[in-house]
Amino acid sequence: MHLMEILRYRPVPAAAVFFGITRRCPLHCKHCSTSSLLDSEEYPEQLFRGFAETFTAENRPEFVLMSGGEALLRPRLVQDIAELSRAVGARSHVLSGLYFAEHGRIPRPVKRAIDAVDHFSASLDVFHEEEVPRAAVFRVLKELMDEGKQVSLQLTGTGPGDPYLADLTAEVRRVFDDRVPMLVAPVSPHGRADAWLKQAPLPRGEVTPAPCAVSAWPVIGFNGQVTACGNQDVMDGKVPLPPHLYLGHIAKDDWPTIKARAIGNPMVRAIRATGPEYLAERHGSKGGCGAEGYCQTCWVLSKDPAIPRRVRELALEPTTRLVEERTEEMLVGAGAVSFAQQYGITEYAELVTLGLEEATAGAGAQQTAGSTP
Ligand code: SF4
């Protein structure tokens, strides 16, 4: 499974689910969005396995994405979730910081977990390189690719002019002969990066509809709480959880329940269709909600009762559903590269397509990468 196959589905509600299966990580990357440490929180494996057991062939996500912290600190759990997913027809992906890469061979339990997933992705950036050398990451990727595993890299940098990104992407392309797709995103001011990365707020122009595509897939946090998006400030409790972003908890809710809420929650539907700033401006009792910023506006939407009330009324109107369907069609039609442009660094967006031709040829007609979600 190529990275593009996952990204193509990114705007489709509940097409995938994110599992944050641990907050622990042995690395100490300066930009870690989850502020992970080796003694960070971790909940029983059965909590996550039990939720994956609620997937059925008739009602399942298309993709199951696992990360942490460092997901491969729990290799048996990654393997179990991947196998449970595959048994009902879902495909799986794991993202790792490759904490084991320097120690020669991949540890056997970790290798079994990687073998079980349909796509393996490694994080690599200037901060990871202080913990795990680039050469060790390349060695692991090469070993996996030689066995036919589909892999990708998730890179972060300061922006299009970051010389580190230019150097790294050029080297990856050269070493792997353009066979490794790369998703390149800016460092975000969350977790440990919050202490040193200051971002000036964007100037507020005319507020127009700006759909939030990253609220399409439910996110399970390390504690089992499920939210409509993975905004780290919300997941860390740095801002009070907005009621409209809470989808449930995997200790008591199964996949069909979470999926139904992700698709049907009127506020999440409206955020996906028009974005939070437009909602605030259009339906707020004071023509806005006083917050500056896209997600910052989202966090306070429910504080103005006029907004959820009006959104609930509108959700019942057939034209609203029509607008939502058209928005989803438009975002899906725009494609994976468009998603990478919007949520990553635009200048590097095309790199998500590397290796697609070869992967498509290898997968044959069964998993045609050009198929429409
Ligand atoms: S706008 Fe709301 S739903 Fe979208 S990413 Fe921000 S906090 Fe999450």
Automatic annotation (TrEMBL):
User: Could you tell me which residue ranges the Radical SAM core domain spans?
Assistant: 21-137
Cross-referenced Pfam families, in alphabetical order? Radical_SAM (PF04055)
User: Which keywords annotate this record?
Assistant: Iron, Iron-sulfur, Metal-binding, S-adenosyl-L-methionine
Is Nucleus given among the entry's keywords?
A: no
PANTHER family the record matches: PQQA PEPTIDE CYCLASE (PTHR11228:SF7), RADICAL SAM DOMAIN PROTEIN (PTHR11228)
State what protein this is by name. Radical SAM core domain-containing protein
